[in-house]
Fold each of these.
Amino acid sequence: MQISKSLIEQYNDDNLKTHQRKLDFSTSEIDNSEAIIKQLVDFQIAIPSWALGTGGTRFGRFPGGGEPRSLEEKIEDVGLLHALNQSSGAISLHIPWDIPTDANAIRNLAAQHGLKFDAVNSNTFQDQADQALSYKFGSLQNVNKAIRKQAVDHNIEVIKHGIELGSDSLTVWLSDGSCFPGQLNFRKAFQNTLEGLQEIYAALPSNWKMFVEYKCAEPNFYSTTVGDWGQSLLYASKLGEKAYTLVDLGHHLPNANIEQIVSLLLMEGKLGGFHFNDSKYGDDDLTAGALKPYQLFLIFNELVEGMNARNMNHAKDLGWMIDASHNVKDPLEDLLQSVEAIMMAYAQALSVDRQALEVAQNENDTVRCQEISQNAFRTDVRALVAEASLRAGGALNPIGLFRNLKVRENLIKERGFKTIATGL
Ligand code: RM4
Ligand code: MN
Ligand code: MN
């Protein structure tokens, strides 16, 4: 299914009056609205190829129909999202869930939809049918050298796929760790992992980045070999300037102050990118901003402040990716909601009166500090996000149009009801 420009225009025309009213209010409240809208137009968030089908849990999976059956159809789905919001102009591939057998054809198809390839992801947390050795007891940390080599080779293979597609980063998430005390020599596990990462790092093209993603627990429940930002930063620092820490919002122990982590990683020049999602208990992978929109805002607040301090390009210098998927929503609607929540948090952070905040901080005026931050969070920026979409050629309300056009029903007609996408 393709969504034509004229359908989008028609929908926007029908809703323009109401939008204009809301926009007038927002721009009267926010001084730098025009600059914010321009920055929103430039901001793109990559869609994970593994989140286009229903997520499921270890207890079950309830597919909703019309799921993409191939990488081509996944690209088509991301193309639909991008046509609707003009903010999802990239796809992040997980290999071997999505192997681009004909890289040229895949590249062309993506280009037709206006999509780029964001970070490629390796997978050494599952055994594949044709795989010689098992990752049951870890991959890069494994006590068995041959298993470590297999994991290194896989990552190098992923880099090769990425090069063919025009990607310029590799995300390494390892499930390595241990489930029981005494199972693992922590130091040796770290050393083995570091050595493996070094070999992978050596295979990176000069313009590439390597993102070392951490996660506090799951599937290992006693220790994780890249368990927190400290460990990730240790690896990234030892590896070199092309290695960075990747922050996945759902990968922290409860109540961790993620915004502070982000601020310090940025200060050190070691923040590489993000996996956005939301969670209540652990790596719940829920829609970004669904539970803790204020936290998302506070994170963006540090991002904007820290990126400005380092003269960074907001849109290009960090990897912005979603990593969310679950059991109950239409995956495409869910992704549209995540993108919108991220754009809103970014817009709110851009609207913070930084000068006033600095003055209040220097005067230890805690009340004023809170007023300034919460004022930005509480001001409705939805019309600014809608205006950015409109100006870029997207829909004023992407989910509204998705439903109007009966996109899911059309996909079910095209692909059938019993289709299953590879991924989580
Ligand atoms: C992990 C982690 C990785 C993702 C896998 C599927 O928890 O978030 O980024 O690739 O899940
Ligand atoms: Mn992740
Ligand atoms: Mn995760």
Amino acid sequence: MSATESTSSASGATPYGTIPPASPLPQRRPVSLPRLAQMRAAGEKITMLTAYDATFAAVADAAGVECILVGDSLGMVCQGLPSTVGVTLATMVYHTESVARGLHRVQGTSWLVADLPYGTYAESREQALRSACALMQAGAHMVKIEGGGWITPTVEFLVQRGIPVCGHLGLTPQTVHALGGYRVQGKSDAAARTLRQHAHELQEAGAAMLVLEMVPAALAAEITTELQHCHTIGIGAGKGTAGQVLVLHDMLGMNLGKMPKFVHNFMQDAGSVRGAIEAYVHAVKEGRFPDDAMHAW
Ligand code: KIV
């Protein structure tokens, strides 16, 4: 086999692209829970983006996001499912391993969060622990779990066993059928009270992060101020949260359905995927995204 035919070389070139030799962000220390708390204390917004494979994870890391979420949105984005309900634990493990390998290959420093999928934590705390361990062994640093109230003892059980947990309140896609569709949550006084109470309970149970999805901006901002030990990450929840998350394909302008109101297409003014993700990171950190007048309720 000649040098040009070889499958890899010292430069990292392969027939399918070049393996990056080292971290594109050599100055950044690995993102950790203490680092996220420092950012919060310094008033710096936390950025999170979904990724489902090695290459996009490496690009997102290089573009400067602090947190990568292997979301069960992969069911709709990658698998073409009608909702996240059909996503299995085996699928989440496969994609978490892919993302973790991508980050490892470029010496990435992002904090890796993986979703516990539908039906893998509701039966018992032990079932949740087994599912969470599978994701941690696949390379996750934290697991995300949907719901409030009934889930709190499970969150406490996982945290006590050394598994960092991110909660998820508001629009919880795994219960879309019970919620009657992808609707804004916490709009009435009673619903807002319940959501706020669930958020406090999750913090008390030890959740270190909390995704707030499709929640009125004012309510999300109040909850953020109240929860000092649990960093809120908003999606359709206004600019007052500690950080923001978007689905990768949405912010690149690739969506098989209707683009949600809270999404901005960062690709339209960027020359590359990395450029689009960098634009997202800068817009969040500079308080330009989200714009509550356009992207929130
Ligand atoms: O699965 C996912 O991508 C998510 C985000 C929408 C937060 O949960």
